[in-house]
Write a structure and sequence with these properties.
heterodimer, A: about 550 residues, alpha/beta, 6-stranded mixed β-sheet, 20 helices, about 25% strand, B: about 280 residues, mainly alpha, elongated
């Protein structure tokens, strides 16, 4: 074993929502092995990783257990020795490649600094090592990369640099804390492959923290499932995924949105609720006396029809223009070109007060459940404000708010409470209720489930599907996650660089993608290769259901 | 709300600040009871040192006026001017900042250039000019102080609005069909209150300092006694009668210090995460 954590208990400061961040956690990683620690937010998976490398925040202290590496208990080592071990024996890759690099230092210097911190090698050797490392993590044009500043690199490239830095001193253990969560799915696939390659080439032990069962299925040898700070299940990855024994693990796996779309719905042929034609939006930035303005065509000639009662998924990676398109459709942004029609009415032509009077016809569910509710308003006000502004009496709006809370699965006691008293999933339900309060003809959900844990995500998806059927909603579902789209959408529109590259029914797009980009997106989703245990598990389920 | 005051109470500086301020307020309120005669009246021989005669703990000034009475009545003036001018400054700065931050564009540019126009003029010089033109009186002093102290408020509120207006709950309000005034007052403004309160408490302190400085230069209201005026009147005899300047000076020091402590304490209480760092 490279490292073994034995009965680790970490206390939280007084006044936290529970006494221990992690309690009696035991796990171990052997050389040449990838151990995935998987769990939802608050499960203590990151605290475990930080305890191993010794980066616990102030006030969060290990109170019991041992972390053994090379026969020594890390928790009892003096600070100086722990510092010396960091980078040399244990290295870490963080989630956010944007903030993990010093923005004012060239990449080459940052990598050299790792050697410098451990007094290793001469200046020239450091440079040479940095070059080979950059090459090893598969960055193009290594010489140029070494001279570049972090802002000149893409998110995936930065994460590769982070990995290069982590590997610099050939550590025995690499800790990766959600290293691909902030990345696009195609980039994620590349980084996962890179980690796998490096690990098998160097025989490192890898402790991989993730919330994504798909990632586990893709790279893990063994898996440890955590919940509320405790280990609930562990074992060989394939075995745990195919036949989980603990009910929580079973629920977690069942909640994973499947890449296999459910059977298509029969939709009546009705006139479209929303017609979008030639929608374009260009962002201009900078530009002055000396600099030429930078232009980005965020949305480029997008056209589609949304039928009444239909759910259309707009799927794409970051920068594909999907959110901009959504914002233009709800008229939070002014499109530069193109037309928007709601039924027969020219929705795109409305201005100021006329627009305000018609706003209720198109509503939006936002991404971030923590930012989308006013922290100083009670739920009652959040839900009634819109209808009252549109001329409903306050009593009727309040009665309707109560109904809506029930529809989204909250009890009416919620009305008197403030947003901070609710969990992320509950807030997202309130956000949905707020959008429904205005009885919109078209609902745009912008990454509405992306910020939620899988099990909560599954609940909210079920709610959206249920509402769609009951209220005959016309829904535009914007997401970066093809699996999520597969679960709720009747049709899917794939965007790239502002353009529509493919549009078709969900079954068509998933079974026989026509555009190579769609194929690349589908292939990149972790955990769904032909022989993956996840695919087998879901195929079995589907078979059993029939 | 309870937990908020508990957080304030944990901050020793803030507690001292509140205690000091309470004493100053109490003295100001009780001034007519403590000293039933006008502070302008000559009641003893001039240059009476402190504690020399019973009932004249702080001594008398060059004309035989009781310094204790001056301190008590001066507290009224200082607090009144500090509070009222801050309220006026908020009344100018908050709406301007809110409009600039919410609407943006050319309106923001115009309002911010206007704000900068005030910021580029040294504020004390501007205050002197305004008081000199309008003739010294409590209202002209309040106006002068308010006119030189609103720009930071406008800047702060604009910054808060700029960051808050792109929040999703504000966008949701736009989609609900709420009018801009409704969004400004009901959605955004309540979320900017805490930094405004902190700034306001510090503004009261600087307003008191400004008023003292104006009075020191002889630009105070001739009908009311003020700490600044007392220092100004005593400065020529500082070497013979230190107490004439020192007591009002200490009063200004303690009052401003208390307000600064309170401001800092409130700031920490509003941002518990920042405050806890480094412990």
């Amino acid at each position: 074993m490279v490292v073994s954590v034995e009965g680790l208990t970490v206390a939280l400061p007084e006044g936290a929502d529970r006494a221990f961040a992690v309690e009696d956690v035991t796990l171990s990683v052997a050389a040449g092995e990838v151990l995935c620690v998987v769990g939802e937010s608050g499960s203590g998976k990151s605290v475990t990783a930080n305890a191993v490398i010794g980066l616990l925040p102030d006030g969060v202290e290990p109170v019991a257990g041992r972390i053994v590496m090379d026969g020594r208990d890390l928790l009892t080592l003096p600070d100086a020795e722990r510092r010396a071990m960091r980078g040399r024996d244990i290295a870490m890759v963080f989630q956010e490649p944007m903030t993990a690099l010093n923005p004012l230092m060239r990449i080459g210097d940052q990598i050299s600094e790792v050697f410098e911190a451990h007094d290793a090698l001469s200046a020239r050797e450091r440079r040479a090592r940095a070059l080979t490392l950059v090459e090893e993590v598969g960055l193009p044009d290594p010489e140029k990369i070494l001279r570049a500043y972090p802002f000149q690199l893409s998110g995936g490239q930065r994460q590769r640099v982070m990995i290069a830095m982590a590997l610099a001193l050939e550590p025995k253990l690499l800790i990766a804390d959600e290293p691909t969560t902030a990345l696009d799915v195609t980039t994620q696939a590349q980084i996962l492959r890179l980690v796998g390659d490096l690990q098998s080439k160097r025989g490192m032990a890898v402790l991989f923290i993730t919330h994504d069962i798909g990632v586990v299925a893709e790279i893990a040898d063994r898996v440890t499932v955590m919940r509320y700070g405790r280990v609930v299940e562990e074992g060989q990855a394939g075995q745990v995924i195919a036949a989980a024994t603990h009910p929580y693990t079973q629920a977690l796996i069942a909640a994973v949105p499947s890449l296999i779309p459910p059977p298509p719905r029969e939709l009546p042929v009705v006139p479209p609720a929303l017609t979008v034609e030639g929608l374009s939006k260009t962002f201009r930035s900078g530009g002055g006396f000396f600099a030429k303005a930078r232009e980005v065509r965020a949305v480029n000639d997008v056209s589609f029809k949304l039928r009444r009662g239909e759910t259309l998924g707009i799927v794409g990676e970051s920068g594909s223009g999907k959110s901009t398109a959504g914002r233009c459709i709800v008229r939070l942004m002014e499109p530069d070109d193109g037309s928007l029609h709601l039924g027969d009415a020219d929705w795109g032509a409305l201005e100021s007060s006329a627009l305000r009077a018609e706003r209720h016809r198109v509503q939006m569910v936002f991404q971030d459940p923590y930012a989308s509710l006013n922290p100083r308003s009670r739920i009652a006000r959040i839900l009634t404000e819109g209808p009252v502004a549109n001329g409903t009496s306050w009593e009727r709006a309040l009665a309707r708010a109560q109904e809506l809370l029930e529809i989204v699965g909250l009890d009416s006691g919620a009305l008197d409470r403030y947003p901070h008293e609710f969990s992320g999933g509950q807030r997202q339900r309130i956000g949905i209720a707020r959008a429904l309060a205005l009885e919109p003809e078209v609902l745009v959900a912008d990454e509405a489930v992306s910020a939620l844990d899988v099990s909560v995500q599954a609940q909210v998806l079920t709610l959206l599907r249920d509402l769609r059927d009951r209220l005959n909603l016309s829904l535009i579902f914007i997401t970066h996650d093809l699996c999520v789209a597969a679960q709720v959408c009747d049709r899917i529109l794939v965007m790239r660089h502002g353009r529509v590259v493919e549009m078709g029914t969900t079954a068509e797009v998933f079974a026989a993608p026509r555009h190579e980009y769609t194929r690349a997106l589908l292939d990149a989703i972790p955990g769904w290769s032909a022989e993956s245990p996840l695919r087998r598990a879901f195929a079995q389920q589907a078979g059993a259901a029939e | 709300m309870m937990s908020f005051w508990r957080r304030v109470a944990q901050n020793r500086g803030a507690v001292i600040g509140f205690a000091l301020l309470a004493v100053v307020i109490l003295v100001a309120l009780l001034a007519p009871l403590l000293y039933d005669q006008s502070p302008w009246r000559m009641v003893q021989r001039p240059f009476l040192p402190p504690m020399a005669v019973d009932g004249f703990w702080f001594g008398t000034d060059t004309l035989g006026r009781d310094i204790g009475a001056g301190l008590a009545y001066g507290a009224q003036v200082s607090l009144l001017i500090g509070l009222v001018s801050t309220v006026v400054a908020l009344a100018i700065g908050v709406p301007l900042g809110a409009i600039a931050g919410y609407f943006g564009g050319w309106l923001d540019d115009a309002l911010m250039r206007f704000t900068e126009f005030f910021q580029t003029i040294p504020s004390f010089a501007l205050a002197i000019v305004i008081v000199a033109i309008l003739e010294p009186s409590i209202s002209s002093i309040v106006l002068a102080i308010a006119l030189v102290s609103w720009p930071p408020v406008a800047r702060l509120v604009r910054g808060e609005f700029l960051s808050l207006r792109s929040r999703e709950y504000v966008q949701a309000a736009v989609l609900s069909g709420l009018t801009p005034p409704a969004i400004i007052f009901r959605q955004v403004l309540p979320n900017t209150i805490s930094p405004i309160i902190v700034l306001a408490s510090l503004m009261v302190a600087s307003a008191i300092l400004l008023e003292s400085a104006l009075s020191f230069l002889g630009l105070g209201d001739p009908n009311v006694v003020s700490w600044g005026y007392m220092i100004g009147a005593g400065r020529t005899v500082l070497r013979q009668a230190w107490w004439i300047c020192v007591f009002p000076g200490v009063a200004i020091l303690l009052t401003v210090l208390s307000l600064n402590l309170i401001g800092e304490g409130l700031n920490d209480a509003f941002n518990p995460r920042l405050a806890r760092k480094g412990r």
